[in-house]
Amino acid sequence: GLCYYFSPPESLAHIAHDPVHAVLYIIFMLGSCAFFSKTWIDVSGSSAKDVAKQLKEQQMVMRGHRDNSMIHELNRYIPTAAAFGGLCIGALSVLADFLGAIGSGTGILLAVTIIYQYFEIFVKEQAEMGGMSTLLF
């Protein structure tokens, strides 16, 4: 039923055979990724109000803008950038699914993100330890 259209097509031949399935899958993936990206900025503390507060705490200002107008100005860019980033992630996932990547496109993106976070933690720990980083790099 409905779950069939929300699952990725099995191959490029299936895309040609049932283009409605492919189009609905693309719309679902891109729409849900954009929606969750926009929702995440509110949940994670990255909304315009939170960014304006962080900038104010760091004594950074936008020339010609008061506090309220700075929030309004940031609201013009942050949600759009979040939605566009979500669309890009969704497009990568759809492309990997369509090309038949081992696993799923979402699984590959998740694995790469986790590995990159471990790498960032490793680099941060090496920077804190000081001299040990010269032995490894």
From TrEMBL:
Keyword Transmembrane recorded: yes
Source superkingdom: Eukaryota
Transmembrane annotation, as ranges: 20-41, 74-92, 98-119
Gene Ontology annotations for the cellular component aspect, listed alphabetically: membrane
Keyword Transport attached: no
Coiled coil residues, start to end: none
Alphabetic keyword roster: Membrane, Transmembrane, Transmembrane helix
GO biological process: protein transport
Gene3D superfamilies on file: SecY subunit domain (1.10.3370.10)
Annotated family: Belongs to the SecY/SEC61-alpha family.
Record protein name field: Translocon Sec61/SecY plug domain-containing protein
Organism for this UniProt entry: Pectinophora gossypiella (Cotton pink bollworm)
